[in-house]
UniProtKB/TrEMBL annotation:
Protein name per Swiss-Prot or TrEMBL: Translation initiation factor IF-2
Superkingdom, natural source: Bacteria
Gene Ontology CC annotations of this record: cytosol
GO function term, MF aspect, one: translation initiation factor activity
Family: Belongs to the TRAFAC class translation factor GTPase superfamily. Classic translation factor GTPase family. IF-2 subfamily.
Gene: infB
Organism: [Collinsella] massiliensis
Amino acid sequence: SEGVTVAELAEALDVPANDIIKRLFLLGSPLTMTQSMSNDLVELVADDLGRQIKIITPEEENSFTFYDDPEDLKPRPPVVTVMGHVDHGKTSLLDAIRHTGIAAHEAGGITQHIGASQVEINGRQITFVDTPGHEAFTAMRARGAKITDVVVLVVAADDGVMPQTVEAINHSKAAGVPIVVAVNKCDKPDANPDRVRQELVEYGVIPEEWGGSNMFVNVSAKTHQGIDDLLETILLQADVLELKANPDTFASGYIIEAKLDRGRGPVATVLVNRGTLHVGDALVAGTSFGRVRAMIDQHGEHKTAAVPSDAFEILGLDSVPTAGDEFRVFEDDRDAKKLADERALKARIEEQNKVKHVTLETLFSEM
Ligand code: GTP
Ligand code: MG
């Protein structure tokens, strides 16, 4: 339950430690370099130095606001999230789209993390995000992450609407994201795609052919029936949205997933939603900082630049960020480092406040 030390605060604020010690003395709290300070004291001293440290919620802290001139906006590819009930075939459908075989290799056939991949259809790109269920998506949305433009709702034609189908609908509607329904497993003898349509009406997801606003496509991830139709439908839906972003500025976006790789260190999958990310850029994501050492696409190919809607793995961060963290590139790497340090400091203060509830009794009983 150690707090922030005088030395750490000095570093985070970029002032000599002696200045802080002096001020602490004048405030009636003489402390040395390695002693830790209370949250109130941190705020007081920072205030005294003309700097404001305020403990704010992660949601507030994680959102940057950017302004783009409409003239700078260029069309960008759609980012599509595949959602649906367990085992209804989300990963299989993505496999069919990518012509790969990820589902067959997954431990227990259950998606363990969020993966991102890009496919090209008739010269147009779509970025797909696979989800392990809805928790990660919910967490991201709760933190204000705007990661997806279109949701593909996968419903197995032999199973129909299930609890997680309804959850996915609720999440999509709350986020204001349009839903394209992929009625999957249509190859099965007991498949009943019309029943799926009827069931979904109850939840306000109504086929266009019935006067609603949702596009439906019957597919089979197994036989690849309807896959091309689904991709065209996604692009049609994306066209309606007129997706745009400014590519000619410093990059920002979201961390889709992150892990510690034994050989490569922290590895993060980033989704760019504004600007262009280059190798060598100084980047902050949550409390992580680093210069982009390498960028790698889903085929393992190295890239030098990532434009809006690109999702690549990046190497070079000093720690593992959290999925849903917003990332941002800084012109000056010192600014990036400072922001990461200040966030780490705030995180420590928050952590400390959570842990430490010292009363006179507990203080004496610990002695
Ligand atoms: P979670 O990641 O666990 O939520 O599952 P998922 O939705 O990604 O489902 P997954 O792709 O792992 O498929 C679940 C099972 O359904 C697997 O055994 C697939 O082979 C099977 N399956 C998926 N799509 C089809 C299909 O179109 N037809 C048939 N017959 N089986 C399918
Ligand atoms: Mg899956």
